[in-house]
Write a structure and sequence with these properties.
heterodimer, A: mainly alpha, Butyryl-CoA Dehydrogenase, subunit A, domain 3, B: nine-stranded antiparallel sheet, 29% strand, globular, disordered N terminus
Chain lengths: 204, 339
């Protein structure tokens, strides 16, 4: 017997690009099918994005609520003005705000965890004396991310963790794209100071 | 540890921050099913037949179609089995389960060879007969499933002949029965049931399984230790096999289960090239002293491709006692096979 996978319906790590697929018409009798497709395309990465922000359990609730909210509000979605991804992440990010305290606590906990471990890894291995590992750098930026305004944090993490473009972030949050770019530039500049090594090598 | 000098430190730091957050695919599937239920995609159809949607362990003789009824190989010890299982788990993790597009169906096929015994004045006839079971699972798992059972008429004599069968009034025609049931509850149970088991895993049951291989093994041990069953560790492999053969375990759960099976003290590789309906895989086995149970895994993909039971004592020692192969793919519609 031959095993056959129809490639058109098999998704890998990255969903196949669909020129019109990300701006679907969410009306008509096939709307549930369209939402099923959107769920398959976005639910898992959205969960991970939310889990990194507010924890895995809350993320499950938020994914569920996001899609139910989207379905209820489908009449407000205009494919001419925004991609479905931006619309969905906008809903998810908005819903996640109720967990902002939890998110900040989580970021602060990351910092505390860092303080219990030595930053200097050179003691273990001379070859890494000049290196700074990613976890150490992550702990350095965590308090600064906790201190950001909600709007700045949304812009940063929608870009970095959800992989949205600046235009998509603008659509998701309902703010001008110029604002997104300037926020992102400012926030990244602030954070980059924390990840720039004191000495030893040039930064970009 | 990551060397951060080679690219943007900030992006690397952001990538590492809370990177251990995990997405449980079984939970996502539960959310998906509940969501699609809520938005009304699920059609409600008639109650299905009385058949179970899982294949009951065939307490019957079977043969390897196009292969051998006789197997003697014992290719490896448990350390090697553990390494190979871990490798299979990694391959599964690297190959996400296919996503079934709305309107399409997961297409599951089992080829099972069962024995039929007929008493005759001459001492009885024993023959192996093939049944093909096909199941179409909708994109929304809570929707209507379709099932077709086909007795193909293919058979092979263990004791007897076509002539003796004709005299005894036995024929080997082709016959088909079809059924349908919401959420695979062909005979109750199924993925939407509140309770589940290794034999009949429900979505809730799967979601509740431990995520850690060692903890999953402990659960398997707890569930597989049955009073009055003296198969010992072999029964644990049977339990795992029961769940794998349903085709319902998501990739991450299968990967954890493979790693859990690595804890079996007497697990061995019994055949590095087991041939199940033309699919070649590694057979992992546990022997209870009278027969060995095998699960067969494709080493290239980590996919579970079937099971065998081989006699290890008595007159039939070395003979394949039961056999089934399993494949899964995507079909365009119920009753249609993949193009």
């Amino acid at each position: 017997m031959t095993v056959t996978d129809t490639t058109e319906s098999v998704a890998g790590d990255r969903p196949p690009p669909e020129p019109m697929g990300d701006r679907p018409q969410l009306t008509g009798p096939a709307v549930a099918d369209e939402f099923a497709r959107l769920f398959d395309q976005h639910a898992a990465p959205m969960h991970r994005y939310l889990a990194r922000r507010v924890g895995a359990e809350q993320a499950h609730d938020l994914v569920s609520e996001t899609f139910l909210t989207a379905f209820r509000q489908r009449d407000t979605y205009d494919p001419a003005t925004a991609a479905a991804k931006a619309w969905l992440y906008g809903i998810a990010t908005n819903l996640a705000r109720r967990y902002v305290r939890q998110e900040v606590r989580g970021l602060r906990a990351t910092v505390r965890a860092g303080r219990r471990e030595p930053d200097d890894l050179a003691a273990h291995d001379g070859r890494v004396a000049e290196r700074v590992d990613a976890q150490t750098l992550a702990r350095r930026i965590a308090p600064a991310i906790a201190d950001l305004s909600e709007g700045d944090r949304d812009v940063l993490l929608l870009t970095s963790w959800a992989g949205l473009s600046t235009v998509e972030v603008a659509d998701a949050l309902g703010i001008p794209v110029g604002t997104v770019r300037s926020r992102l530039h400012r926030v990244r500049r602030q954070l980059r100071i924390l990840t720039t090594p004191e000495e030893g090598y040039d930064h970009d | 540890m990551t060397d951060l000098r080679s690219s943007d430190d900030l992006d690397r730091a952001l990538s590492a921050l809370h990177a251990d957050a995990e997405t449980d695919s079984a939970r996502i599937q539960q959310t998906r099913a509940a969501f699609l239920d809520a938005v009304g995609q699920t059609p409600v159809k008639k109650r299905g037949s009385r058949r179970r949607w899982v294949i009951a362990a065939a307490a019957a003789l079977a043969l390897v179609a196009g292969g051998s009824l006789y197997t003697t190989t014992l290719a490896g010890g448990s350390a090697e089995a553990k390494v190979e299982l871990d490798d299979a788990a990694q391959r599964i993790a690297a190959t996400p389960d296919p996503v079934v597009a709305p309107g399409k169906y997961r297409y599951l096929v089992w080829h099972v060879w069962n024995t039929n015994y007929t008493e005759t004045p001459g001492g009885g006839l024993r023959v192996l007969e093939e049944t093909v079971i096909e199941v179409w699972v909708p994109a929304n798992i809570r929707g209507t499933w379709y099932r077709r059972d086909t007795d193909t008429g293919r058979h092979q004599w263990i004791k007897g002949s076509n002539e003796e069968a004709r005299k005894a009034g036995i024929s080997f025609g082709r016959s088909t029965t079809t059924s349908s049931a919401r959420c695979g509850a062909f005979d109750g149970g199924g993925p939407c049931a509140k309770n589940g088991s290794w034999q009949d895993p429900s979505l809730d049951w799967i979601a509740g399984l431990p995520k850690d291989p060692k903890a999953l093994f402990e659960q398997l041990k707890k569930d597989g230790t049955i009073q009055g069953n003296d198969r010992g560790e072999t029964e644990l492999l049977v339990k795992a096999q029961d769940a794998l053969r349903t085709g319902m375990l998501p990739a991450d759960v299968r990967a954890t289960l493979y790693r859990a099976l690595g804890n079996l003290e007497n697990l061995k590789i019994s055949d590095k090239a087991a041939n199940l309906d033309g699919q070649i895989g590694i057979a992992y086995s546990s022997d209870d002293g009278s027969s060995r149970e095998e699960i067969v895994i494709d080493p290239k993909t980590g996919a579970y491709i079937g099971s065998r039971e081989v006699a290890t004592s008595g007159r039939n020692r070395g003979h394949v006692l039961s056999y089934s192969s399993f494949t899964t793919s995507i079909a365009p519609a119920p009753w249609k096979t993949p193009r």
